[in-house]
Amino acid sequence: MRRARRRSASVRKRRRGPRRGPRRGVAAKRARRTPVRRTAGGEMSALERERITCALSAWRGEPGKCQWCNSEIESPRRRTWCSNACSRAWQRNHIWRFARAAAKRRAKYYCERPSCTAERRDCEVNHKAARNGGGYGPGCHHHLDPDQNGLGGLEVLCRAHHREITTAQAKERAAKRRAVRESAAKETGADSASAKDSSSSTER
């Protein structure tokens, strides 16, 4: 009875036809991949404009060329990068999880402060230019090295040094917010005082 049931179930599966669910493996990855395309009006997307303005990218908006090294894309299956090396280079400088891992590997998982004696792998990655609530979405703020003006870049710190920096940044932001509130309160007080003076002069 069991064999007959199993056989009948397999027959029913074959009669249903091929499975129409999502494909798996490499084919599924290719199906899920959404290449960057131009809009109906021919305008560039926000991601393409960011790649053009990126200081590390050599691409200047020419179609059919790699959006990292600006070389000709020869493979018919590729639309954005000419090779996996260019794709990984862009990821390491623009996507946080890849940039964080690359920065740790570059520092060999040690704190980059010269006098620090923290153990290996007791490290965290810090943005030299504080994000100040800007988030960790994809962008040029994840560049591994600073730009020509010395701004930006990532550094690897131990947990103690990283906590020290983030605490100082939080105090600075709190001081700025306090100063803004005090200035707003002074302005409202001055406005109310002038309004009282004007009302008293009209009553006289």
Description of the molecule:
It is a single chain. The protein has helices at residues 2-16, 25-32, 46-53, 84-94, 96-106, 159-203, and strands at residues 123-127, 154-158. It has a two-stranded antiparallel sheet. With 204 residues, it is mainly alpha-helical. It is flat, with a radius of gyration of 29 Å. The chain contains six helices and two strands. It has a domain at 44-94.
Strand content: under 5%
Helix-strand category: mainly alpha
- Spell out the helices and strands N to C: HHHHHEEH
The residue-averaged pLDDT reads 81
Strand order of the largest sheet: 1-2
Task: Name the quaternary structure.
Answer: single chain
Counting DSSP E segments of at least 2 residues, the number of strands comes to 2
Please tell me how large the radius of gyration is: 29 Å
Shape: flat
Give the biggest beta sheet: 2 strands, antiparallel
User: Uncertain runs with pLDDT below 50, 5 residues or more?
Assistant: 21-36
C-alpha end-to-end distance:
109 Å
Residue share in helices?
40-55%
Quickly count the helices: 6
